[in-house]
Amino acid sequence: MTKPASPTTNEEHKPSNFLRQIIENDLAKGTYANRRWAGSPGDAAHHATGEPDPAKIRTRFPPEPNGYLHVGHAKSICINFGLARDYGGVCHLRFDDTNPEKEDTEYVNSIIDAVQWLGFSWRQPGNDAPYQASDYFDFMYRAAEYLIEAGHAYVDEQTPEEMRIKRGDFGKPGVNSPFRSRTTDENLSRFREMRDGKLADGAAVLRAKIDMASPNINMRDPAIYRIRRATHHHTGDTWCIYPMYTFAHPIEDALEQITHSICTLEFEDQRPFYDWLMDRLCEGGLLAAPAPKQYEFARLNLTYVVTSKRKLAQLVSEGHVSGWDDPRMPTIVGLRRRGFTPESLQLFAERIGVTKSDSWIDYSTLEGCLREDLELKAHRAMAVLDPLKLVLTNWDEAFGSGHVEPCQLPALPHADTESEPVATRHFTLGKEVWIERDDFAEHPPKGYKRLSPPITQADGSVTLGSIVRLKAGYIVQCTGCMKDSNGHITEVHATVFTDTKSGGAGADSVKAKGVITWVGVADAVRAQVRLYDRLFKEEQPDAGGRDFLTAINPDSLKVIDAWVEPSLKLAQPDDKFQFERLGYFVADREDHRTSNLVFNRAVSLKDNWSK
Ligand code: ATP
Ligand code: MG
Hints:
With 611 residues, the protein is α/β, with parallel strands linked by helices. It contains 14 helices and 31 strands. The strands form nine sheets. It has a seven-stranded mixed β-sheet, with helices on one face. It has a seven-stranded mixed β-sheet with strand order 25-22-23-24-16-19-26, with no helix packed on it. The two termini are 56 Å apart. Mean pLDDT is 94; it is low at 1-12. Adenosine-5'-triphosphate (ATP) binds next to helix 3 and strand 10.
């Protein structure tokens, strides 16, 4: 017997949505209370031998293993696994691998990784491996023969063109195929010939016999099996006929005893066929009743990205990005390498909610979720991305030549130090430090709170150089700067106020205008920093049939050499940091080594794109 996952989060805090209401209603009415579960997928007879299903509901995430998952799939994963978790149910991971041509085990493995990384598990005692739809080919074939025997399906040998014309359109009913009135025996033997490879690819299809005049075109005798000589990545050459998706999918759900089959809105028109098929196979006793029901929600449309698998593949194959896991890609592997956390994506899925109408979600919503998650978690560090040397000209005189002053800061400034010990970062301040180039202004704008030199005004009076604190170190006063022959500033000079060490008795003896971040020339470490920005400069890169490649942002990646504080020598791949005043960064999971530091900017501290 299997045990359902226990709810791990408190559903009271989750905003309700129409899917939750449907599930709560079904639970209250006991719609699925009498189902049985035999421990593995199967037909009615199989499940009849099982125990009452310990899972209160069953949902599924059914990707086709034909590409890498993206942020839209993450939404679907969070919905399906989240609902199962919250309502004492189980969510199945099922590879919808009924289409033999496009699938690959590389994708299977990447999907497994993505689901696990997002924090979900399909594993139940006795059911370790994900399900795969190709395991159900035998049953699907049996179901097709049953439909033929019951007079609900026929083999049609019209040309695809004839079938298309006779299907009619929205205003015009379809016309019955001349093959529609074949006898059961004729249909059965012809279908078996299809299976046995006696007919050429495309020479015939098996169609459900429903209603050629239905206002829903999907009900006008849809094809349910086709001939396709293709080697399948699991079943090899066992089959030369394959079920159509619309036939296969409801059966997969039913064999797995899914209660709530949640999909995106484009399948709404397929729901009548889903129900028709379930009714036929339940009345024939092949499937256990009650059958699953399909519910549709709006897919995620996110601004500044494309999510079509074809377009993502094009970005990779044409070299616009470095691969599927390029940190600018909206794939789950890309988001992960960019520094997104599972928690930030879960938060995003929750925040955008589940609706029945299409809308666009702004990319900044996704970034906001990452900031929110990292704010309390990411260790702080100081880094200088555009370095300019600051020389403290009275240092030797004040402290002795070669003196370096040990300084420290907590890794997490807001942590509750009573309940958890907090790491401390150690670094040193000496005669020379690196500061950001824009933390010095020769001609400061009004209100500038960083370093600026003494200035002789028009009336002859002198404004003194500005006074700022070097964070966690001393207060300094700017005295001037040095330039090269081109007028480019090469060095800033300042004097230090002894006794003003941060946290010391004299810390407040001099009033500083502001605080700037810095790293010591003596102990700073070199790091490569990759400054990522949005890959597209248009909100909807592929809107209105535009070639999405013309919307590529040419400045989506800048690679720079930065100086970072010495504590970052301990950073491991995937570790996330807030570089103070600069943004959130992650040690690159591919290229970062403790001997060769590489950090990706995950997100800036503030939204720079909002209008
Ligand atoms: P394809 O175009 O190849 O069918 P797909 O994006 O539909 O691609 P699937 O592997 O069929 O990919 O998707 C698996 C699941 O993810 C489906 O249940 C689908 O509804 C859901 N899904 C896909 N894209 C989105 C999206 N943008 N928003 C929400 N759910 C999505
Ligand atoms: Mg699909």
